[in-house]
Amino acid sequence: MWRYVAGGVAALLLIGAGVVLFNGPARSVSPLAAVPPRAGQVADDDEAMPETIPEAGAKTREEKRFNRYDKDRNGIIAREEYLAQRRKAYAKLDTNHDGQLSFDEWATKATTRFAEADKDKSGSMNAVEFATTAPKRKVKAKPDCPAVAAPRDEDS
């Protein structure tokens, strides 16, 4: 019985210590405080740092997105403005321009990709043919850095 009481008291003490530690005053350390002055630069404490931190522009991501849709800039997105981008995408898929999207029109890209991968025109793909359908990854260009000279032995 005493084990349970002692365990409960210990748990309460740990919780109390955690509350005190997390709610205690925080010290603010400026990342610039540890940077030494550059050569020829005088470290003046009197040199004024800006009192306010510059902030990003006032436009949020949603405001920018709203402005992309609001083509006439009247502060309201009309139904036509909202549907314009979807109509363009639909028009690309509607290859016969009849205003109706058949399954074949919708699946054109997939069927074309399948037909290109099925080299033997058997109507099915083997493992080698299927491997050609993997998405192509963009290769990042490596920076053109000068070669580093090998260190010389000064003992020789």
TrEMBL record:
<keyword id="KW-0808">Transferase</keyword>
<keyword id="KW-0418">Kinase</keyword>
<feature type="region of interest" description="Disordered">
    <location>
        <begin position="40"/>
        <end position="61"/>
    </location>
</feature>
<dbReference type="GO" id="GO:0005509">
    <property type="term" value="F:calcium ion binding"/>
</dbReference>
<feature type="region of interest" description="Disordered">
    <location>
        <begin position="134"/>
        <end position="156"/>
    </location>
</feature>
<dbReference type="InterPro" id="IPR002048">
    <property type="entry name" value="EF_hand_dom"/>
</dbReference>
<dbReference type="Pfam" id="PF13202">
    <property type="entry name" value="EF-hand_5"/>
</dbReference>
<dbReference type="GO" id="GO:0016301">
    <property type="term" value="F:kinase activity"/>
</dbReference>
<protein>
    <submittedName>
        <fullName>Histidine kinase</fullName>
    </submittedName>
</protein>
<dbReference type="InterPro" id="IPR018247">
    <property type="entry name" value="EF_Hand_1_Ca_BS"/>
</dbReference>
<feature type="domain" description="EF-hand">
    <location>
        <begin position="81"/>
        <end position="116"/>
    </location>
</feature>
<dbReference type="InterPro" id="IPR011992">
    <property type="entry name" value="EF-hand-dom_pair"/>
</dbReference>
